[in-house]
Amino acid sequence: MTPVYSVIVVTWNNLQYTARCVDALLRTLPSDAEVVFVDNGSEDGTPAYLTDVARRLGDAAKTVFLDENLGLAGGANRGLEVAAGEYLVLLDNDVVVTPRWLEGLRECMEEAPRAVPGARRVGLVGPVTNSARGPQKVQNPPPFQPEALNELAAEHREAFRRRWAPSFALSTFCLMMRREVYAEIGGLDERFFPVGHEGADLALRAQERGFECMIASDVYVHHEGSATLSKAFPGAQGGLGGADLFFEKWRARRAGKTRLVAAYPVRDAEATLRESLDATARFADAIVVLDDGSTDGTGAIARSHPAVARYERTELPSGVDGRRDRDRALQMAAELSPDWILAVDADEVFEMDRARAERLMQLADPHIKALGFHWYTFWEPTRTYFRADGALGAMSGYRMYRNEPGLRVARGAEGGLPGGGIPEMPDGCGRFTDVRVRRLGYDTEASRQARIALHGPDPYTPPRVGAPPELADLASNTVTLRRYAPASGVSLCIIARNEAERLERFLAFLEPFVDEICIVDNGSDDATVEIARRFTDRVRVHRTDRLDLAEVRNVGLEMATRPWILSLDPDEELAHWDLPRVVRLMDDLDVHAYSFEIANHQKDGPPVMTIAVRLFRNDARIRYGRAVHETVQPSLDRHPELVVRPAGVEIQHYGFLKDDGVMEEKLSRYLEANQRMREEDPADPMPWYNEGLHLLNDGRDDEAIAFLERAMVLGQRFLSPRSSLAQIYQHRALALWQSMVAELPPGHPVRPTAEESAAVLGRITPARMLVGQARRRRLQGPSHGD
User: Fold this and answer.
1) Beta bridge partners of 261
2) CB–CB of 280/306 below 8 Å?
C-alpha cells in the first residue's frame, strides 16, 4: 500500500536527540505513514540504532546510510528520492513531535485555501515551535518539560484552532511538502551546505509556481534548535550561514526581470486621469485601465493615451466596488506577463522615475513581494498644501507587488465602497519605500463632497459602517495643512570596517527605503567592500593614519546627493513599521535634524538608552566632530539657527553583543583616540566623560568619578556625566545598606530602615554593564590568586 505520509529524518551523531525524536515520532505516527531515516555518516552508534528501529517498523521504514556528511540538504534529498508518500515531511532529529501533528499540518494544507482570504493552493506547511528564526517561533515559550509537552500542545491547538497564516518563508526543522510541489520544483538546494536558507529558498521556488506557504499555528512541536548543526559545523551561525550564496542565487535568478504594468480602476476621472497617466508612463512599461461606467470624458482620455496598452469598460449593476474593480484590473495587468504590478488610482501621481522603479524591482532580498508608498492629499487648487492631520495625514500602504500565479484581491473595500487594495501578502514580505504619492482628487470642496456622497445621500451624516477612516477627515471642519516640500529623498550614509557578517542583511533591509546608499570603508580586510558594491556604486575606501571616525563619516556625507541623510551603522536596526514615521519627519520644512533614542542591547541586562541625531538635512553646516564617539552635535551647537527635534523613533543597537575579545580591541583603540582628543582640546567635556566610562568599565571607580566630575564642570548642560555619577553613588549606597542589613542583629532599631533602603535601592539601581575583558573577568570569577 502506498503511504500517505513520508517522514524523512536526517541524522548526524547526537544519538540522544535522535532517540528522543524517534520515540515521540513512533508514538504519533499514523498507520498510513512511512519513516525514511537518512544518516550522514554518524560515528556514535546512530546507524545501529536506526537499523534496529527500522527492523521493528518493517515495511513502514526505509534507511539510507551515507559515507560522508552531506549536510541537511544532501541528506534530505537522498530521503526524498526514496520516499513514496503524497505528503513529504522533513523532520530534524532534535524535534519532539506531539499528537496529531501530521494530521494538523495536512488539515492546514487542504483547508487553508477556503479559510484564509486570498490564499492560493498550499504547497508547504510548517508548525510553530519554541525555537526557530522568523514567524514560526511562539512568544515566550515555557521551559521544555517532556512530561508536559503533549498537554501544552493540546492547549495550544485549542487556543489557536484553524489559525493559519501565509508566510514568506518556512524553516526545514519540520516541513510538510505536497508531492506535486516536489515534482515541480525539486528538493533542497545543496549549494547552501552545510545548512542555511534551504527552507527560504524552497519557499520562494514554490511561490514562484503559485503555491502558498502556510504556518499552522495550531500545531506545536518542540525544537531543540541547531543541536546537530552547532556540533557538526560550529561556524554555520545557527543556520544563517551562506547568506551571500542565497542572495547571489536569487539576484542572478531574477536579473533583468523589470517589466512593470500599472493597473487603473477608474470612474468619472477626467479631471485628474491624464496627469496621473503621464506620470505613470515615465516609469511603467504599460498601463491597463478598467473603466467602471464613466459618464464623462474618462474613456476618451484612457483610449487615446499612448501608454495605455489595454482599456476595458464595464457597467455592472452593483455600482462602484473597489475590491471587484481592483481584482479585475489586476487580472488585466497579469495577462500582459509583467514581473511587477502597480495599482494606481486615477487621481494619484507617483513621484518615481524609471531608474528608481528598476532598482525596486531588482532588490537584493528575494522575499520582498510588496512595496509601500506614502500619500499626500492636496487640499486646495494650487496644490501647495496637503492635509497633515488624521488618517489623511498618515496614509501609507502597499501598492506595488511581484506578479505570481494565482494572485487575487480578496479583501479591501466592502459593500460597494471605493478604494480597495492589492492581493494578500504574507507578513514579512512587504517593505516601505520613501516614494511619495500626490493625491489630486481632494483639492476643492466640491471634489471632497463628491467623495463623501459616494457613501450616502447626506454628506453631513456620519459615514456608514465599513467606510474608510478618511471619510471622517473629509467631513471634519478642522484641518491641519502643511506646505509640500518640492524635493524629497534620503541618502543612507554608513561607515564600515570588517562588517561582512552583517552588512548584506543590513543593506537588503534598507535598500527599498532609501534613494541612494553611500558607504565609506575604513580599511576592511574581509568581504565588506565586495558586499557593499553589490548594492551601490557609491563606495569609497578611506583609510586614516589614526582613528578618526568623524573624518570618515564626513567623507560619506560629501558623497550624498539627496535632501536628507540617514546615518546608521550595520549593527543597528530600524523597525519596519517606523519607516513611514521617518518619511513624515522629512515633511517639516522648518526642521533640520532629528534625534533618535538608541537602545544599546547588552549581554547581561536590559538595553541602555542613549540619544543621538541620525536624520538630518544634507546641509554643509551639519558635519561630524570628534575622532571617536563621533556626533553631529558640535556642529549643531555652533549653528543655533538649525532646528533639532526628537524623532519619536527608536533605533536598536547590537554592537555590544559582539565577542568580548573583539570589544576589547575596539575599546583599546577608542581609549587611545579619546585620550588624544582630551589632550588636544581639554575644554571639551565629551572626552573626559568617555574616558570616565572606560575607567568605570575597568573597575577604577575613584578615577572614573574624577573624570566624570570634570566633564560635568566643563559641560553645564551635559547631563550624561551626572547620570553616570548618580549610578556610581547608587551602587555604593546600595552596598553600604546591604552590609548594614548583613551585620545588624534582628531587633536593632536601625535594621528596618536599612532593609527598606536596601530593597528600594535594589529595585531602582541598574546593574553595571561591562564589556570586553572586564565582562569576561566577571564571568570567570576571581582567580585562585585573588
Assistant:
1) 286, 341
2) no
Q: If you ran DSSP here, which 8-state letter would residue 20 be given?
A: H
The stretch 424-432 carries a mean pLDDT of: 89
Q: Which helix (H) or strand (E) holds 309?
A: strand 308-314
DSSP, res 462: P
Cβ-based neighbours of 753, under 8 Å, separated by 6 or more: none
Quickly count: other Cβ atoms within 10 Å of residue 51's Cβ.
15
- How are the residues of the chain apportioned to helix, strand and coil, as percentages rounded to the nearest 5? 40, 20, 40
H helices, E strands: number in the chain: 26, 27
What is residue 225's predicted lDDT score, i.e. its pLDDT?
Answer: 82
Q: Say what the pLDDT of residue 781 is.
A: 63
Q: Does position 114 have pLDDT exceeding 70, yes or no?
A: yes
Q: Is 586 left (phi over 0), alpha (psi -120 to 50) or beta?
A: alpha
Cα–Cα distance for residue pair 296/311, rounded to 1 Å: 15
Per the model's pLDDT, the better-predicted residue between 662 and 594 turns out to be 594
Q: What value does the CA radius of gyration of the chain take, rounded to a whole number of Å?
A: 30
Using CA atoms, how far residue 438 sits from 338, 385, 766, in Å, is: 25, 11, 49
Q: Is the pLDDT of residue 241 over 90?
A: no
- Three-state DSSP state, 210: coil
Task: Look over the chain and give the mean of its residue pLDDT values, rounded to a whole number.
Answer: 90
Written as nine digits, the cell of 478 is: 478642522
Q: DSSP for 403-451, please give it.
A: --TT----SSS-TT-S--------BTSEEEEEEEEEE-TTSSHHHHHHH
pLDDT number for residue 469: 64
Task: Region of 197 please: left (phi>0), alpha (psi -120 to 50) or beta.
Answer: left
